[in-house]
Amino acid sequence: MAFLHEIFNNPFAKRALAQFVLPNWIRDNLKFDIRPYQEEAFKRYLYLDQEDLEEKPNKPYHLLFNMATGSGKTLVMAGLMLHLYRKGYSNFLFFVNSNNVIQKTKDNFLNIQALKYLFNDKIVIGGKEVQIKEIANFEEADDQNINIKFTTTSQLHIDLNNTKENGITYEDFKDKKIVLIADEAHHLSSATKNNGTLFGSWEGTVLEILKQNFDNMLLEFTATLDYESREIVNKYQDKVIFKYDLAQFRIDKYSKEINLIRSFYDEQDRIIQSLILNLYRQELATSNNINLKPVILFKAKKKIEESKRNKEKFHKLIDEFSVTMVEKIKKSSTVPIVQKAFNFFEAKGISANEIVKRIQANFRYENCLSANNDLEAERNQILLNTLEDENNPIRAIFAVQKLNEGWDVLNLFDIVRLYEDRDGKENKPGKTTLSEAQLIGRGARYYPFVLEEGQDKYTRKFDDDISNDLKTLEELYYHTKEDSRYISELKKALVESGIYVDDENFINKQLTLKLDFKDTDFYREGQVFFNKKVAKKFDNIKSFADLGVLKTNYRHVLSSGVGRMSSAFWELENPTSNAEIVKAKDVKLEDIPKHIIRFALSQNPFFYYKSLCHYFPSVGSISNFIVNKDFLAGLEITFSGTQNRLQDITNFDYLQALGRLFQIIEADVKSNSTEFEGSNYISDKIYNIFKDKEIRVNKYDERANGQEELVASEPWYVYNANYGTSEEKKFVELFARRFEGLNQKFENIYLIRNEREIKIYDKLGRAFEPDFLLFCKQRDVEQITYQVFIEPKGKHLIAYDKWKEDFLKEIRSEQKTIKIHTDTYLITAIPFYNYANENEFKATLEGILYE
After folding, report:
1. Which range has the worst mean pLDDT, 255-269, 441-455, 518-532, 647-661?
2. Which residues, in sequence order, are CB contacts of 37 under 8 Å at separation 6+?
């Protein structure tokens, strides 16, 4: 039997999900942007709930979301709460295994001032404002708001099996339908995993609650599900609705990359090395206008006393910190990133003495925190969970194991292991090593930043640009003593978790511009054209029609008693006798009382003035929006009902119809508009964009072959090698064969491989990095320089990347001629190159250049 989540891999389910539109009561009420995989999680639940599938679980629903650490499980919880409230659920029971996670979650759900509060300031569902309320028991609940009871799994078990006054009882779950939300849910299956009886266990208590009411629901969330356990697989095979593990999280670039810094330094020098890198990150970020306060975690092995001693020694080290200590690391460390840090300090004029002063200021006593046990973790939970807040002073944390779960931190960049032994056996990671890997997974959460408008702030940007200094802001360093057996075991644990890719199979390749090319006038004076991702301007949107809103009337059925009765076996009356009773009537919005329209608009945040001005800058005012025929006054509603009802449409009828109409308008506007678009072309000098660089490739991959035997001596190929795919190499071979023909009509012919140096953006703001740019200058009187975007594409990717080929065709059809000083450039493009259609591509390319 397959897992439940695997049903969504079939083409029918994929097409169905693609057509789902996320309801506005989810999207509009969450404070944070919904990432694509989170949207997928929501859509899977909606699909499963609405469709009549063979695999659909029986009620009461019991589902599990297996989502990676840092992937935003609580945002999915919050969105599902909003949706389930809309479906009639107002009571929620949230439970997890530890108190410190409870406190963090309360802040996320209840504290509107908290940095990580999940909801917008005002929650509006179904036209009314909804509050999020904490309750002690379900007798305090009301059906107008979202009521949440927070507890730990152990406390829940105690409360239900040892009844006390004002506590919750099993009876609470019979009369009210309740959604149970279990976080860190892997702790909820100990009885199952150990083949024990459920009776009397935490697990048994939760399942007993679930079955108290047919409409109850249990939604479990965990990053850790043991797919190796037959018992766990049997339990969850029909319950895992969504699987998004650490490996996929990392592949999608939502995590930091992990680097192990191994040295023969003793503990003190390992600490000093981490302090220097901490300062380097801070100064590097500041110099690029990024607000970052990097944090270090100092990890003790098992005992709290050991961690306390570490903290005492650290404060003594900071008090005695000296230039001599800094110079020792500068002279002795062979770690490249450490040397890069010192080179940066020297370039910025930051002396060793200044390094000492800044580190001492950053790591004052009051800026260091302990989280060694539950009491410390709970007492300091606000500071621990707001480390990214600019008002949070904490720079160093000392801990044993209390932060391995439930800890949300984005600006942790260094973990220093302050012990040297190992507990692995037979080359397998021990329990301590596994917990270290779990902690590293938490520290790998990406710190968001942007360098230019339109960049995705939440994903890595420099994977293929390993020489870029800012890559350091996308990496977590784990500092440990050099020990090959321990490192092997730790790598194994990290690789198995999916957050680490062993780099033994990867090699660095130097991509250098040929010296002859650097000596050309084209390199020194030539221009390259591209564009930027910019916020979409709606200045030219002056009516609903410009965004394709409501091409047909919204149809609203008036409530009435018209109906008939029939037997299950035969008709009791003529089925056509009432066919003519229901009629239709068109009502213009300009004929509906204005105060009713205003009230209906006020119930939907999309129609607040600020939002309207975003999409329709010319709207002027809410009054104009109502009376202007380009907007509401130009619309009609088709009411259907009996003759009597059509003659007596009430204000409440109007309000109901308008509410639904406005939801449709909102959906139309959002689906027919984008937040970003590509700008007009801009240019920069060739020498500013294309430079020598280092890239990283798998030594067993086809890209590791640089095709030097062909390109090394060709003056038209500007780099020393082509570390491209087989399809890209085939294209270069074709170009080499056609070069002589081009050479007769053009001069300054240069083919430049684009290793992520430039992006171009289409009208929807989607980024595209063409693999090659071809430059060639006409030999005739006009001497126009062509810039041609070229993209070789493997056959298996052509359909998937169709939008990119459409974009290239659009560039071709709208080709631009741009003059810079005395030089004229023609910007154009050509559809995909594929070896199977090589002759067609060749004819098209020659058609462009020789037309």
Report:
1. 441-455
2. 71, 244, 248, 252
